[in-house]
Amino acid sequence: MKEATKRSFFRWIHIIFSIPILGYIYSPFEQIPNYAPVTRFVFVPVLVLSGLWMWKGHVLRRLISKRSPQMKTGQELEA
Hints:
There is one protein chain. This protein is 84% helix and 0% strand. It is mainly alpha-helical. It starts with a helix and ends in a 6-residue tail after the last helix. The model has no long low-confidence stretch (mean pLDDT 83).
C-alpha cells in the first residue's frame, strides 16, 4: 500500500471518529450519560491512536523497518 493511501485512510478514520465526539459535546445535557461510555472507550482512543500515527507514524515505521531484517533472516537474540 502506498504511503499516500495510508495517510488518507488514517485521515478519514480520524475525521469519521471525531463526528460522534462533536455530537457528544453538543448534545443536550440529559443525553450525555447515554453516549459517555462509547465515547470514552471507543471514539476517543481511536481518535488518539490515529492522531498519533499521523503525527509520529514515521518514527514507528522506521523502528519496525530496522527490526524487520532480523526477523526475516530467522536470527533470534538468545538471552
